[in-house]
Amino acid sequence: MHTSNLKGLKAFLAVVECGSVTEAANRLALTQSGVSRQLSAIEEEVGFALFDRIRGRLSVSRKGAAFLRHAQRTLDVVENLPRAALAIASGAADRVVIAGTSAVVHGLLPFAVARYINERPGSPPSITMRSLQEIAEIGAQGHFDLIVAPAPLQPRHYDLLETMDFQLCLAAPVDLLPIDSDDVSLVHLNGLPFISLDPFASYQESVVRALTAAGTTVRFTCETSSVVTAARLVALGAGCAFLDPFVARTIAGPKVSLRKTSPAIRHSYSIFAPSNTPIGEETRHILASLRTVVDEFSGSAGHHEPQPAKISRKAATKARG
Length: 321
Fold this sequence. Notes:
Blueprint: H1 6-18, H2 21-28, H3 32-46, E1 51-54, E2 57-60, H4 62-90, E3 97-100, H5 102-106, H6 108-119, E4 126-129, H7 132-136, E5 146-150, E6 158-167, E7 169-173, E8 183-185, E9 193-197, H8 204-213, E10 219-224, H9 227-235, E11 241-243, H10 245-249, E12 256-262, E13 266-274, H11 281-297, E14 310-312, H12 316-320
Parallel strand pairs: 3-4, 3-5, 8-12, 9-10
Antiparallel strand pairs: 1-2, 5-13, 6-13, 6-14, 7-11, 7-12
Helix pairs in contact: 1-2, 1-3, 1-4, 2-3, 6-11
């Protein structure tokens, strides 16, 4: 396809998103006839109709829907070119850019990135926080070398590299856990005050299911959508919370008890890399740091020595690349 038809691709996407040629023309500051001509030029070049025209209304055709995905990727890449050129000009092209959800950015990533920086000085990475929805809907224009997010999220345009499995940690003010044991049975939590993550938090369903199976009823004193806020409330003595071991480690101290539970409540993070893109050397070093941190931290709580996490290395061939 000729680059002259990039405007036609934009017109195609605008009509799909707006639902009509009229609205698309308003968005693009073009005339309706101008948008129609661009659509006709694209259809003539690809050799099939992008829309079914039924009773004066446009509906994306089956082939048009398949073409839409490729058109979006093409425009995403083109729109990202100025930023890529700026990165090359500033010498930041080799910088590893990582995206993660709030819990990942405040828990796992700082430990991994600190290790990486100590081992690879002079290669400063970039960390960006994104919501679950933003990661799920991310386009090629928001290029990240790695995305770390709770399973089973699957961002568009990215391939799964690895799934890192770990046990959730029970974090509590020391005066709320009188049981002198490394492992705390869920049945002993009955009636304790808890900070609840909202129902849409990635592992709250697992927590509720485990407590129900144990016949345990806890008293929720607060609900929050932020794992970091839950951790801070524990540190301030407001109640207990189930946290990932990396966030939990950030509040470790004489006033906070970190324990494993019996039975264990497990969770996992997935690591993604851009589809059809070779993994660079620095990105591989970041991956190695992530694995090391998970191995060291995810099995430990309270007085336990670090134990290896279960790491499922899917698409490992790509990671070793």
